[in-house]
Amino acid sequence: MNRTDMTSNSEALGLRSVAAVLPPATANLEELKKANLLVSETKTLAELGFEKLHVCDKAHDPEWLALEAASQAIAKAGLEPGEVDILIWASALSDTHIRLSDKSPDATGNLLGLFNYRASWLQEELRLDAARVMGIAQQGCAGMFSALSTGQAFLRADPSIRNVVCVGVDALPEGSPREILYNLISDAGCAVVLSRENLRCHWREFHQVSKGYYWNIAEKQKEIIASYFPTSRAVIRELLAKAGLTPDDIRWILPTGISPGSWDILASITGLKSERIFRGRQPFGHTIAADNLLHLETLLAAGDAQAGDLMLLFTYGFGSTWSGLVLEGV
Description:
Helix content is 34%, strand content 24%. The protein is of the alpha/beta class. The protein has 2 domains: 14-195, Thiolase/Chalcone synthase (Peroxisomal Thiolase, Chain A, domain 1), CATH 3.40.47; 201-329, Thiolase/Chalcone synthase (Peroxisomal Thiolase, Chain A, domain 1, 3-Layer(aba) Sandwich).
C-alpha cells in the first residue's frame, strides 16, 4: 500500500506530543500480598506476567500526575498557554474528577464542594486562560481514547481550534485492592496535544463499540471475561476495515498493561503479528488511562517509529467499551 496515499485524502490532524507519568513509589507482589491488597495468589499473578505496580503517595498524588503529564506534553509541543484552545480531562473514577477542598462549615458549602472540578483547577494551574474545559467519564479504561476522539472531532469540525490537550488521570483509593480481574493496577497520568501542525503522528482511524449489557461490573465479571476476546477481535477487524488496512499493514501494536500473554492471543485471533507487539518498557502493571501512551511515548522518544509506520492502539474499558485507534508515523 502506498504510504503517501494514506493521508492524502484528509486534512493532516494528529498527535503533536505525548507524555505519560508513573508515580515513583512501587510495590511488588509480596508486599501487596502482605498488605492484603491482592485477590489472587502471587504465583498466579507472576505467571500472568505481573511483577510490581506504581502507587501514588502524598507528594505524588493524582494532581501531581495531571500537572506533570500536561506540563510535559505542552512543553514538548512547544506551545504557550494561550495557544491551547480546549482542555479535556478524562478519568474513570468519579472521585478523580473532583478536587476536595477544606471542609466547609455548613451543608450548603459541602454540597458546593462537589462542583470543584479538577479540569478547571488544572486550567488555572497551567494558565490555560483561552481554553474551553470539559470532562469525560463513564468509559473505564477507554476514557482517554474517548477524549482523543472528541478532541480530534473538534479539530476537524472547527478550523478556529488549533490545539487540544487531553489529560487522563486515575489513582485507586488508598487501601483498595490492587487487582482487578487478574490484572495488577498502577496509578498513572498521561497527556496528549492534538493539533494541525508539527505532528508526531497522523490520525488515521478510530473505532469504538459500547455494550451497556455489562454495566453491572460486580455481577457480570464472568460475562465480561468471556466477551473480551471475541468482541476485541470484532472491534479490531472493524477498525482496520474502516481504515482500509489489513493486519499486515500494522507495524507497531501498542498494548495495554494487562497480561502480556493475552496480547499474544489477541494478535493471533485478529491476524496481527505478535512480534510487532511493543514490549519496550519495564513492567508497570495495568494503568487505567495511560498504558498505550506510556508505550507510544517510549517508541517515539527512541525514534523507532519511522514515517509511514502504522501503529495500533487498543483498549477495553468497564461500562463496557472497546476502543481502537490507528496512528501513522510522521
